[in-house]
Every structure is written in C-alpha cells, then in structure tokens.
C-alpha cells in the first residue's frame, strides 16, 4: 500500500531524529573519533539537534503544513533516541529512558498509523500531543513520582522484573491499539463520530471479534504499563482509576452513536463481544 506524502515525511523525520541511537556504533567503528563521543557527547547531541531541525527548516520553510509535521515527528524521534541512550548508558535513569521511548513512539505512531489507514481524518492533532490538560498533568505526575522515588527511595526503582513486566504491558498495549487502527482503517477515528459517514461499516472481525473497543483496551494497558515500568505505585493507582472513568464515559457515549448507526447489528455485537476493559459494559446496561 502506497503511503501518502504526510506518512512518508513523518516516517523519514522520525528516523532522522532517532538516528542518534546509531552514534555509539558509528563512533566505535571510527575509533579515531571515539574521543568525541566519550568526552564531548553532549555537544555531539546538541549538534545533531540543531542540524536536524536546521534541515527541516531549510527544506520545508515554504511548506507550513509539512513543516509542522516534520518538526513534531523529527523531535519525537530525537527524544526517542535520547531515551534509548539514557536506557543504555545510565543504570540509575534507565527506566526513565524506557518511559521516554514508549511515550514518544506512542505519539508518533498515532499520527503515522492514521496517515496510513485513514488519511481523510489526518490532522496535526493525530499526534495526540494536545490530548487534554488532564493527560499532561498525569504525564507530569508520573515523572515527578519517578524522580522523587529515584532520589529519595532509590530501591523503589530496582525491581527489574516488575519493570520488564510493565515494558511488556506497554509494548503489548500499544501494539493492540495500532492493530485495531489497522483493522478498522477508515472506520477508526480519534474522535467520537455523531454522524454516520459514507462507507462507515461495523467492524466485527480481527481484534474486534475479541473486544468491542480494542483500541481503548490497548491504550489502557499501555498507560498502566508505563507506570508499572517506572515502578510508580501512586501513579499506577491514579492512572487505573482516572483512565477507567474516562473510558467508561467515552464508551458509553460512543455506543449511543454506534447504536444509532447500526441498530440491531450493534445490539447483537454487544451481546457477543465484551468491551475489553473490566467492569465497563457500555450503553447496553440501560437496555
């Protein structure tokens, strides 16, 4: 399947930004330059940041829409790469590196998958970087808790098996979400649709035969996984409760629209397939 232009430039920009993960290998192979990486690694990373953003500006200076995409995708890639290096070179902060990688890849891949499967709905908001004030507060809280624990209770961040479990939850959850977007294609949208669009069909195959809302199940698993990965007990509970409430309300509202769109077909689908998130039943509880 051919990718639209926005998908191509997003992919190339993310790869360009994240290419800094290759620096250790490159400087190791070019041993006569290894001292630059060993002694001046911060300067090397700053040069990479300036160079990548400089190229973006030079190439897309007269293409504002494309520039907005490459800046977001490219800098998400740079941040992803920094997370990778942090996880490789710092024992103390390696878990935070994992978190940065998971967070940045999640947001970039939301845009990328939308561009590949439902380009008509594609906007800058598809990155989900401006999702909500509550989302930003939650992300900030998770960082604060991790740093407080790492500085005051360092033993809290040494449970590697727990962190690995969280990493698997995050990767698995993100994979499930992207698989649900790929399966639904043009029938998937980041926003609740109150009017049925032409060509909109009820998707009941693939992962949708297991969960009615696999994208929400994936997001829920991903968000909890990031907190397990960071060994954040307080934020884990907070994420579990707040995210559950959010998805409960969203699924309830969304299923009102889906029942209006598909009627008896959706009622039958509800009877056969669960939402996927524990104790969330959707609109059918009122029937």
TrEMBL record:
It is found in: Endoplasmic reticulum membrane; Membrane. It is a multi-pass membrane protein. Its main location: endoplasmic reticulum. GO terms for molecular function: protein C-terminal S-isoprenylcysteine carboxyl O-methyltransferase activity. This is Protein-S-isoprenylcysteine O-methyltransferase. GO terms for biological process: methylation. Catalyzes the post-translational methylation of isoprenylated C-terminal cysteine residues. Belongs to the class VI-like SAM-binding methyltransferase superfamily. Isoprenylcysteine carboxyl methyltransferase family. Its EC number is 2.1.1.100. The chain crosses the membrane at residues 12-34, 40-61, 73-90. Gene3D superfamilies: 1.20.120.1630. InterPro entries: ICMT_MeTrfase, PPMT_MeTrfase. PANTHER family: PROTEIN-S ISOPRENYLCYSTEINE O-METHYLTRANSFERASE, PROTEIN-S-ISOPRENYLCYSTEINE O-METHYLTRANSFERASE. Pfam families: ICMT. GO terms for cellular component: endoplasmic reticulum membrane. The keyword Transmembrane applies. It catalyses: [protein]-C-terminal S-[(2E,6E)-farnesyl]-L-cysteine + S-adenosyl-L-methionine = [protein]-C-terminal S-[(2E,6E)-farnesyl]-L-cysteine methyl ester + S-adenosyl-L-homocysteine. Keywords: Endoplasmic reticulum, Membrane, Methyltransferase, S-adenosyl-L-methionine, Transferase, Transmembrane, Transmembrane helix. It comes from Elysia crispata (lettuce slug).
